[in-house]
Amino acid sequence: xPVIKKSNEERCFALLKGNIFKRMETEQISDxxxxxxxxxxxxxxxxxxxxxxxxxxxxxxxxxxxxxxPDYEILEIMHAGGDKS
Length: 85
Hints:
Blueprint: H1 8-27, H2 31-38, H3 42-50, H4 57-66, H5 71-81
Helix pairs in contact: 1-5, 2-3
């Protein structure tokens, strides 16, 4: 069976999802706390955490700032979404 390679956009969202999970686990931050920060219901935040493409830009900014994403993780996510030339 052939291997199906992820698109650059799928890689971007996979990295973002992993980074959110990692940072929340490390800082022991719950979905309920993050929901309060982003102004949404905890269930909605949990769904968006699993599908980061559903975050709006302002919500994503709040997540990145509250979880203290370092610049290299932000750049890694942005690079993964670009084309590989």
